Amino acid sequence: MSPHVARKRRLRRSIAVGVPLAVVTAMVVTGTAMGTQDGGGRQQGTPKKAHITRAATLGNIPLGAFSNSLLPGTVADDRGVDLGGIGSDLYPAGRKGEFWTVTDRGPNGQIKVDGKKRRTFPVPGFDPALVKIRVSGDTVKVVSAMPITTSSGKPVTGLPNQKGRDEAPYTYDAKNPLSYDPNGLDTEGIVRAADNTFWLVDEYGPSLIHVSARGKVLKRYVPRGLDLRGADYPVAEALPGVLLHRKKNRGFEGLAQLPGGDLVMALQSPLSLPDEDAGDASRTTRLLRFSPKKQAVTAEYAYRFDPVDVVDPGEDDTSELKISSVVAVGRDRLFVQERTDKAARLHSVTLNQRANILGGKWDKDTTKPSLEQLDDPVASGVPVLDKRLVVDLGTVDGVPGKIEGVARVDDRTLALINDNDFGMTDGAEAFDKDGRLVDSDVETTVTYVKLPRRY
Length: 455
Known about the structure:
Elements: H1 3-16, H2 21-27, E1 51-58, H3 63-70, E2 90-92, E3 98-102, E4 109-113, E5 116-120, E6 129-136, E7 139-147, E8 169-170, E9 187-192, E10 198-202, E11 207-211, E12 217-223, E13 235-239, E14 252-257, E15 263-267, H4 276-281, E16 284-291, E17 296-304, H5 308-311, E18 322-328, E19 333-339, E20 344-350, E21 387-392, E22 403-410, E23 413-418, E24 445-450
Parallel strand pairs: 1-7, 5-8, 12-13
Antiparallel strand pairs: 1-24, 2-3, 3-6, 4-5, 6-7, 9-10, 10-11, 11-12, 14-15, 15-16, 16-17, 18-19, 19-20, 20-21, 22-23, 23-24
């Protein structure tokens, strides 16, 4: 038996005899640090390029125990899945080494049936959660967690919202359909406001969600015309209707909070305008600025990806380009992360009001050609945001794949977190004959990267 499997079994036996979640969390033993520099003092010969100073991993916490400790009875069978997916974003929690994170919609995968892919939800009772973590040595510990709930205190779940618009949900083996849930959220970005409430973004709507300090959804802001019915929380159609053309599973992913309180949301991928082929071929996505005071979008910007083989040498599929994180580093300045699943680059971008395209022809889905179809947006009169490369994370030894969360620790240090997809892979082989997860052994890792200069 491998040490990895033996450790999981010991933890599950502890749960079976009633050991509290906090005790289980403390039992977690994690992997080895990936770097030796501590960043506290300058070492002779330290390279003048970005390098890792620390890496820490989250150990194995059974997902059923985690979820049921927050909302008892939520998960009947976790199918051997551990807590994961908290790498959707990272936001400083105040104390050194502590961060707020948010899970995504939960364990999910794809299995082909009769030549068509079906989206599976092996743990359909899973409820997205806000999770505070602490990096201590080479260990990531769960400090606290809150479930995201509806107005009446029920779990929002991570299930898709609308038939015909979202992917149909199925059981772990893709054999039986599951019900849609208008409350469901595929949460991604997270920030915490001065009043201790949280703001999140979601891929389904795409939407912006205001959540109380205790995890209750206060309001969900969605595109005009979405017509989301049956949700157990307030829904406001306050976002541009053109966002209805978001690519499936590619809605909002990045979220930043500017010093004045405004929020910046990033579409993970270009819109499918006028169709999926155009969206897959495009390198132009959109950032939106939202005023919590006005409860309205106040600006929209065109953002241009680098060519895919620049972001990820050897990759030739433009549709693999995504924005997963945006970080405020000044009054109107952001770090914007462009990535594939294997590589990522961080750019510095200044939001310029002269680049605001909100409410113009590019917000109309009847415009031909669409913004997404333009090979050279600038030549067509579109004020694309200027950007400057900060760091190519693909050249930093030891950075994990699928980095989705970035936080600024200080003016020379970044903290990165990867999405481990709850240890899941696609395909029928993701689960054994007994319906238990065949874990990918990809761990959730927080990685500190020191930059060559201050930003």
